[in-house]
């Protein structure tokens, strides 16, 4: 068979395999489209990548650890090479963790890298999520990917919790004990869930092997599936981009997947891997041999969970001792239930419903591919900062014993501080962030309307001194002008005789209009003044009434 | 690793070194076979690097890859040379293995980054986005397919099929839940009892030594105590572990129970915190406060271990203790109320005890 020759020709080594694949899997168009797929560039787009690469490193190091780890709570007497524990009774799980640390070359390194990668995994996910939140990248059409991301974060927390418990050292057991205390406090079903999960009373002999299966099979399997879905959706919907010259809602500007993004991604994976190796090599983490085997009778002072569980720890610590008995027969341990469930529920439910609530309030059904700058959505940014403050305070208070000890503050004072600030802090954060956002918007409006200060002072014929303003540079101006108007619903009360639109009738409708008006209340419009451009001094705005520039 | 040093700016024409027409194309090029770069392939948005700069970058890339090569060999050498076993040797092995691994990975990462930034062109390619929502025509086609399929399946017309299918699915959905039943026993009253019973000796946790009341006589002393014979029974210890505190008799105040509950000022409280079950292991001699290190619930040992601070809502239950005829401390019964964290079925056990005493 003679085929028309293809030009340009590929070298044989590449042509052969490609031909083999193409004739069996119809990839022709797929490869053509996707090899040159464009990826926009911004440092904050790398955060999700760190999470992805940490996950891969977790799978690699975790697999290594399973080759020696024994998920068993069978009692054994230690006879390994770590002298101080010789002859001590311990579980097989703890013994095998010591074996990995002291008798397998590279075992300690892999254990430490696994732990560091886990910390980095959750951290990068959270920061990635904050980036997506504050730039509004979760908006249509990306709500589903936002929810998948939220699912990934939730699972990652459980993955961390189950993994932390496996070595069965004294510190990991303390975490497990708290978990049990929380589970058993659940009304109606608590004791049953505890007995089924632990195979009877705490700690029982099943929990390590059950957590092991959950940790190495169940959750990673779901994580892998969700990560794949997350990436496919990102690929199909294409990445968002920051506003700037030549960037619109209808295009994406950046580097092609092949060769540039591919190589950059590869390099970034290696950077992540390298840094984790560095941490594993030189920064000790979870020295289980120093803690000793778990016993429910002992604990060490200053016990701290992994960082991502710290906010739950803080929430438990600042709670007041509330407990309700119903007719003397049933108990609602609110001092456990509220701190364990309410912050978690607030944060995760809030994150889950926010894109939909915002879409309802703004009535914005457009597709968004250009990121918002946080200042241009002041309500969202302020809600986000209130949430960050709420979480941050809880996290901080999870270490209140360390704070009290290191800064010589009364421990009780830190708790009282927490009890007040957990309510006050988010409110303050909201107000402050809101004002900062509006201030930044005004500055943007100033840059567009009057230009940038040049530092050149000029004296006018009438004796007045002014500073000469130059028009903003094109990239800067384009970046600022990427701001999008948020639709403000018509004011129904002022519209005499007007019939409100169907979506704005009734109680819900009225609330929607109110929320919409609150959401759009302080938008500062960008207006270009062409008269005397560059000669105007920056004081023009200050003379005008505030309302004139904030309302429109 | 972003190409743009200034992220808000687009590296427009004036920022990115663009190839000047007439200058020779870079040697080697980016195509395979050592082909020269095809001028016509320089599409809009692709800015080829300055060839001299690319040449210089090549040396640094080669150096980075060479470092990776050496570090890789270093890793293997470290694996063979440095053995593990005790803390010191393991530390050396860990540092050398991790150090060489990190060096190898970072060398490769730096090399590739230099390659991307120094040899590959800078890109500002614009790709169009497609509207994600289908056109009305596409939608009507899809709707037709769905309607046709539903009609052809006959699920609408044949009611019996539909209903029995739902019926058939119901028990199947329950099977996984039923199958999980044997995960554990029913709780019953297990959480209400511990292994303590009349006559069971108190022994020191760790050493297993029984305690002679006369020997435990320094006020302010504290001991962590477990039941004799259950020193390694984790389930028993999770509920039955005690703290034994020696107080001066005049320090003891109600609601601490004294008569038939203490021996010469020695009081026994459950060590399991009533908040979420951590061992309340810290004791402050001067204030007689028992502190749980997990969430800082604080209990007053002189006043029946009542809560003075923190999230715990109930006092640590007290265990009645006495001495046997050899003078060793023993339990006089089990706890009157459930120990440890609260649970739904617990109820106000303390109130029931008080009512029982009155009756």
Keywords:
heterodimer, A: 552 residues, mainly alpha, two-stranded antiparallel ribbon, two-stranded antiparallel sheet, 58% helix, globular, disordered C terminus, B: 359 residues, alpha+beta, Rieske Iron-sulfur Protein, 2 domains, 4-stranded antiparallel sheet, 6 helices, 13% strand, disordered N terminus
Mind explaining what this structure looks like?
The complex is a heterodimer of chains A (552) and B (359). Chain A has a domain at 451-550. Chain A is built from 20 helices and 8 strands. Chain A has 552 residues and is mainly alpha-helical. Chain A has a two-stranded antiparallel ribbon. Chain A has a two-stranded antiparallel sheet with strand order 2-3. Chain A has a two-stranded antiparallel ribbon with strand order 5-6. Chain B has 6 helices and 13 strands. Chain B is flat, with a radius of gyration of 38 Å. In chain B, the strands form 4 sheets. A 4-stranded antiparallel β-sheet of chain B has the order 4-5-6-7. A 4-stranded antiparallel β-sheet of chain B has the order 8-9-10-11, with no helix packed on it. Chains A and B meet through helix 5, helix 7, helix 8, strand 4 and helix 10 of A and helix 2, strand 3 and helix 5 of B. Chain A: It is an enzyme of class 7 (translocase). Chain A: It comes from Bailinhaonella thermotolerans. Chain A: It is a multi-pass membrane protein. Chain A: This is Cytochrome bc1 complex cytochrome b subunit.
């Amino acid at each position: 068979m003679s085929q028309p020759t293809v030009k340009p020709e590929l070298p044989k080594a590449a042509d052969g395999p490609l031909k083999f694949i193409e004739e069996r899997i119809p990839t022709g168009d797929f490869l053509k489209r996707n090899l040159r797929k464009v990826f926009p560039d911004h440092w904050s787009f790398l955060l999700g990548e760190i999470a992805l690469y940490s996950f891969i490193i977790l799978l690699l190091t975790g697999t290594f650890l399973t080759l020696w780890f024994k998920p068993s709570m069978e009692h054994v007497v230690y006879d390994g090479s770590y002298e101080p524990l010789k002859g001590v009774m311990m579980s097989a799980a703890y013994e095998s963790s010591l074996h990995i640390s002291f008798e397998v070359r590279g075992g300690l390194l892999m254990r430490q890298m696994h732990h560091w990668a886990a910390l980095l995994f959750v951290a990068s996910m959270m920061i990635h999520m904050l980036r997506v939140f504050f730039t509004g990248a979760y908006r249509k059409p990306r709500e589903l990917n936002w929810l998948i991301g939220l699912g990934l974060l939730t699972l990652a927390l459980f993955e961390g919790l189950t993994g932390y418990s496996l070595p069965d050292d004294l510190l990991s057991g303390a975490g497990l004990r708290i978990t049990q205390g929380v589970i058993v406090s659940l009304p109606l079903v608590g004791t049953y869930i505890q007995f089924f999960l632990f195979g009877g009373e705490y700690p029982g002999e099943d929990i390590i092997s059950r957590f092991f299966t959950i940790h190495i099979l169940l959750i990673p399997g779901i994580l892998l599936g969700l990560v794949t879905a997350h990436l496919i959706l990102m690929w199909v919907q294409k990445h968002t981009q920051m506003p700037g010259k030549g960037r619109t809602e209808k295009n994406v500007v950046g580097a092609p997947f092949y060769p540039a993004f591919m190589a950059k991604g590869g390099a970034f994976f290696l950077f992540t891997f390298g840094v984790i190796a560095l941490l594993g090599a030189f920064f000790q983490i979870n020295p289980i041999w120093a803690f000793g085997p778990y016993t429910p009778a002992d604990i060490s002072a200053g016990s701290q969970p992994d960082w991502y569980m710290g906010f739950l720890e803080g929430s438990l610590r600042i709670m007041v001792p509330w407990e309700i008995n119903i007719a003397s027969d049933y108990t609602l341990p609110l001092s456990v239930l509220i701190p364990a469930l309410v912050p978690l529920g607030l944060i995760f439910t809030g994150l889950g419903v926010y894109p939909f609530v915002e879409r309802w309030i703004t009535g914005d059904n457009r597709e968004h591919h250009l990121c918002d700058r946080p200042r241009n959505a002041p309500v969202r940014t302020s809600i986000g900062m209130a949430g960050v403050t709420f979480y941050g305070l809880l996290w901080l208070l999870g270490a209140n014993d360390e704070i009290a000890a290191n800064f010589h503050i009364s421990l009780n004072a830190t708790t009282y501080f927490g009890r007040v600030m957990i309510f006050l802090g988010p409110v303050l954060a909201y107000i402050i962030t809101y004002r900062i956002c509006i201030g930044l918007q005004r500055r943007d409006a100033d840059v567009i309307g009057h230009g940038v200060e040049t530092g050149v002072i000029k004296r006018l014929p009438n004796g007045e001194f002014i500073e000469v303003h130059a028009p903003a540079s094109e990239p800067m101006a384009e970046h600022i002008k990427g701001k999008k108007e948020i639709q403000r619903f018509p004011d129904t009360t002022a519209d005499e005789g007007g019939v409100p639109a169907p979506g704005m009738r009734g109680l819900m409708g009225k609330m929607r209009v109110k929320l919409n008006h609150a959401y759009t209340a302080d938008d500062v419009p960008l207006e270009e003044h062409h008269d005397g451009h560059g000669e105007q001094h920056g004081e023009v705005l200050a003379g005008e009434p505030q309302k004139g520039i904030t309302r429109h | 690793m972003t190409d743009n040093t200034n992220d808000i700016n687009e590296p427009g024409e004036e920022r990115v070194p663009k190839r000047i027409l007439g200058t020779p194309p870079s040697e080697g090029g980016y195509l395979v076979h050592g082909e020269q770069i095809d001028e016509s392939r320089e599409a809009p948005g692709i800015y080829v690097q300055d060839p001299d700069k690319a040449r210089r970058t090549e040396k640094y890339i080669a150096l980075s890859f060479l470092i990776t090569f050496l570090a890789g060999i270093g890793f293997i050498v470290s694996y063979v040379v440095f053995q593990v076993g005790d803390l010191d040797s393991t530390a050396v092995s860990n540092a050398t293995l991790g150090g060489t691994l990190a060096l190898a990975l970072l060398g490769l990462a730096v090399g590739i980054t230099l390659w991307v930034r120094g040899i590959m062109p800078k890109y500002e390619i614009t790709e169009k986005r497609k509207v994600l929502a289908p056109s009305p025509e596409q939608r009507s086609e899809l709707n037709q397919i769905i309607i046709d399929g539903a009609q052809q399946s006959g699920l609408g017309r044949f009611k019996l099929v539909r209903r029995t299918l739902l019926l058939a699915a119901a028990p199947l959905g329950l099977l996984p839940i039923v199958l999980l039943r044997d995960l554990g026993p029913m709780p019953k009253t297990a959480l209400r009892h511990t292994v303590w019973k009349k006559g069971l000796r108190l022994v020191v946790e760790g050493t297993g030594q029984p305690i002679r009341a006369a020997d435990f006589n320094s006020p302010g002393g504290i001991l962590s105590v477990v039941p004799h014979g259950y020193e390694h029974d984790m389930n028993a210890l999770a509920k039955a572990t005690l703290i034994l505190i020696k107080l001066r008799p005049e320090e003891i105040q109600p609601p601490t129970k004294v008569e038939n509950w203490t021996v010469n000022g020695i009081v026994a409280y459950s060590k399991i915190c009533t908040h979420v079950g951590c061992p309340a292991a810290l004791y402050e001699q001067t204030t007689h406060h028992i502190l749980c290190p997990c969430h800082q619930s604080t209990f007053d040992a002189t006043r029946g271990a009542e809560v003075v601070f923190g999230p715990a809502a109930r006092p640590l239950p007290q265990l009645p203790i006495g001495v046997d005829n050899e003078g060793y401390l023993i339990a006089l019964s089990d706890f009157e109320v459930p120990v440890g964290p609260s649970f739904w079925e617990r109820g106000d056990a303390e109130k029931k005890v008080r009512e029982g005493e009155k009756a």
